[in-house]
């Protein structure tokens, strides 16, 4: 996994929602919560967001890891599902709100030569908070089945998962499946970009300023570091003396943790 992203921090060692390339909002048109009981299905729109990093070889000829850094989804619209309880009676509940949150960053697999993305059982640790008949229930559990979806940078076109819930029902209990269908239509956060403006050829033995231009859709670049031939320079270094051909690189990181590294080969005359 580290090999596929050698110029980024190891995502598993960073806090939740760090190191993700794109931030995407869920479309309330295509993102739905379905509460499924033994008596029917009740549906509401979902809103929220996610952060992910497509692997370098996505849509290519080899499979590679796909990083999901954060995920939230919620509905505040009331639902009134009915269910047959384990004691043989029937009851209706008022579900006033449901929220879902990814509890830790997760790795999935990008299928070779495809936009398909998948997470095996146990990969996604979700916290589900539901308010039912005025009482709040919290469940923290991994996914029990494969979760499949599609991704085309930067959007997550589809992601569907089921969360099983056991809730009180008269003198017994009832099983409810919270089925989450998620989809995005664009990105609200994208990685920064930059261009090294040091000439391709400079005079040998003369100190040359390290210069570049940068841009970021969210205007929140928090770190800029230079590397020469792969060696990280101290942040105080702003110029170097060229004595031969060297590879310059500037690494830009925004507040979300999205990192871009731009390189340029510079020779001296």
Describe the model:
This protein has strands at residues 22-25, 32-37, 40-45, 47-53, 64-75, 82-84, 90-92, 95-102, 106-110, 116-119, 125-132, 135-142, 147-152, 155-169, 172-182, 193-196, 201-202, 207-209, 212-215, 221-228, 231-232, 239-241, 246-254, 259-268. The chain is mostly beta strands and 269 residues long. The two termini are 41 Å apart. Mean pLDDT is 84; it is low at 1-14. The protein is elongated, with a radius of gyration of 24 Å.
Essential attributes:
269 residues, mainly beta, Immunoglobulin-like, 2 domains, 13-stranded antiparallel beta sheet, five-stranded mixed beta sheet, 24 strands, 56% strand, elongated
Topology:
Elements: E1 22-25, E2 32-37, E3 40-45, E4 47-53, E5 64-75, E6 82-84, E7 90-92, E8 95-102, E9 106-110, E10 116-119, E11 125-132, E12 135-142, E13 147-152, E14 155-169, E15 172-182, E16 193-196, E17 201-202, E18 207-209, E19 212-215, E20 221-228, E21 231-232, E22 239-241, E23 246-254, E24 259-268
Parallel strand pairs: 17-24
Antiparallel strand pairs: 1-4, 2-3, 2-15, 4-5, 5-8, 5-9, 6-7, 8-11, 9-10, 10-13, 11-12, 13-14, 14-15, 16-19, 18-22, 20-21, 20-23, 23-24
């Amino acid at each position: 996994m580290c090999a596929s992203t050698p110029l980024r921090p190891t995502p598993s060692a960073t806090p939740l929602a760090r190191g993700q390339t794109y931030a995407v909002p869920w479309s309330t048109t295509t993102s739905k919560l379905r509460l499924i009981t033994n008596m029917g299905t009740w549906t509401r729109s979902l809103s929220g967001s996610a952060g992910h990093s497509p692997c370098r070889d996505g849509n290519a000829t080899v499979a590679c890891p796909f990083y999901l850094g954060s995920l939230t989804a919620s509905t505040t619209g009331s639902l009134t599902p009915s269910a047959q309880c384990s004691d043989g009676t029937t009851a209706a509940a008022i579900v006033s709100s449901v929220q879902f949150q990814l509890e830790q960053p997760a790795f999935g697999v990008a299928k070779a030569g495809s936009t398909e993305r998948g997470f095996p059982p146990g990969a996604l640790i979700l916290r589900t908070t539901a308010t039912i008949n005025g009482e709040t229930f919290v469940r923290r559990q991994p996914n029990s089945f494969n979760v499949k979806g599609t991704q085309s940078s930067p959007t997550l076109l589809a992601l569907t998962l089921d969360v099983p819930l056991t809730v009180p029902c008269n003198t017994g209990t009832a099983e409810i499946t919270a089925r989450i269908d998620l989809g995005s239509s664009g990105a609200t956060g994208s990685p920064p970009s930059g261009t090294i403006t040091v000439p391709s050829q400079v005079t040998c033995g003369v100190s040359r300023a390290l210069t570049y231009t940068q841009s970021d859709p969210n205007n929140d670049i928090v770190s800029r570091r230079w590397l020469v031939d792969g060696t990280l320079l101290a942040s105080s270094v702003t110029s170097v003396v060229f004595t031969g051909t060297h590879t310059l690189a500037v690494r830009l990181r925004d507040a979300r943790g999205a990192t871009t590294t731009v390189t340029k080969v510079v020779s001296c005359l």
